[in-house]
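User: My instructor asked us to take a sequence, write out its structure as tokens, and then describe one feature of it. I'm not sure where to start. Here is the sequence I was given:
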Amino acid sequence: MYEKYKDIDRYIEKLLDGSTPDRPLWNIEKIIEGKPPAWNYIDGCIITALLEVAKITGKSRYFDFAESFIDWYVRDDGTIVGYSQEKYNLDDVNEGRVLFDLYKATGKEKYRKAIELLHEQLEKQPRTNTGNFWHKQIYPDQIWLDGLYMAQVFYLRYQQEFGNGDCSDTMDQIRNARRLMFDENKKLYYHGCDCSRTAFWADKQTGCSKNFWLRSIGWYTVTLADLIGYINNDSDRNELIGLFREIIEGIVQYADPQTGMYYQVVDCGGREGNYLETSGSSMIAYAMMKGARLGVLDSKYSEIGHRTFDGICGKYLKTGENGELDLGGICLVAGLGPENNRRRDGTYEYYISEPVVDNDAKGVAPFLLCYTEVMRRVQQQ
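Assistant: Let's start with the prediction itself. The structure tokens for your sequence are:
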């Protein structure tokens, strides 16, 4: 399997060589829909991964590409191409997490201004009656696991690096998600919760959606792994570690015994139409390996996560007819609603109906993050 790892560098080069800021190869949604270039979480996931690849490889090309990509979007006054604060979309905050590292590395004041612009959105973001951010303006009163990843890592870094250091808001929102969305029997988190209990997909008693979508749980595991890596307060860190261990111990019991991967609908392995999915499996593997490296998970999870990564490589990293590698098995997109899109109802049938594609950033980015953790393991051996 180590021979195949060498091809991953070639795969990264393929993505970079074929991408420009206004038309990246990995943003399949944008390509399909033909939308104009705009700041978005999908690109943000890739740039986050590339900065980590740059750190572990020492290759300047990865950093230079990431910086030039973001530089194209952020204007000198800190405004951002295609960004609209009034949408109150937590997804749009995610890409902002790379601005902290780029600001430190380059000293470009426009990155600091863009950080402030995105933080201003969070200050104004509508909230549920629990105090959590709405996922988007078009999803009133809703908490999604995805949104915790999109907003909270940026929010915590802002508070610690530019704010007053108070991370209690982040901690409260994480606690509320645990209280509202965790299933004690399955040991898994539901994808979303409507605090008003009025959304067509929501349970009228709990407000939760109907199923356990893999990528949403993957987002959540990465949220905790990344927050633990950044947070300064020992008491808060220990609380996050407890939640992290809980979800990792919960999810690992659903791993496919042959590949170590996880199913699109997590607890329905073997059910007709269900499939082993790349993006969520990569996120969980990355979180496991990172957690073990940070010393907050048992060391066995380094091996478990590595096995999942190898399973993804074996099943979905394939050489096409043109001799180039493609990463398959990636759910293009899944969500809940809004009201005028009742197909997205959170049922099992819905989750398995969404397109499965190759080379989309939502799978590629966590796969590359896994790769950085694997490289760390190899270097330590």
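For the description part of your assignment, you could build on this observation: The domain at 2-380 is CATH 1.50.10.10 (Glycosyltransferase). Try explaining in your own words what that tells you about the chain.
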